[in-house]
Amino acid sequence: MAIFNRSHYEDVLVTRVHKLIDKATWTTRYKRIREFETGLTDNGTTILKFFLHISEEEQLARFAERLEDPKRNWKISESDYTERALWDNYIEAFEDVISATSTPKAPWYVIPSNHKWFRNLAVSRIMADSMEALGMAFPKPSVDLAEIRRQYHRAVEEKHEHKR
Which helix (H) or strand (E) holds 110? Predict the structure, then answer.
């Protein structure tokens, strides 16, 4: 199991919202993302992509918690507030990237995340169901377990006899 950070997707979000790239560029990047994910899924990799969506109001409430709680101060940055002014642009970009890069083999799961307990439940349920669908099982032993057990018990008995 591996967890990829959002770098692929941020490359078509922040750069787009800040007008550092044009539509042709972000469209080409969508294609590259799909090709990368196809390469993974064609080789048996299961991909789960989660977009953890919070409302604008919830984001502001979390900022307040970060400002008020000294243990959370480290989580806040100046860009958090400057980027809020671009909320609608980010939502449009998120919608486009999700639409352009969600495929049957690498779907996006948009998770309502205002309530962390629900976010955690939804993500863990999807992950557990996906792992169960893989039908994974421990490999069969390649040794004679009965013989190994006999040798183990004999060694334990011999050790106890030497202590007596």
Answer: strand 108-112
DSSP state of 103: B
Backbone angles phi, psi at 51, to 5 degrees: -105, 110
Q: What is the DSSP string of 25-69?
A: HHHHHHHHHHHHHHHHHHTT----EEEEE--HHHHHHHHHHHHH-
Q: Are 51 and 108 in contact (CB under 8 A)?
A: yes
Rounded CA gap, 100 and 55, in Å?
22
**pTM surpassing 0.90?**
no
Token pair in block for residue 34: 């799909």
pLDDT in tens, 6-61: 777 888 999 999 999 999 999 999 999 999 999 999 999 999 999 999 999 999 99
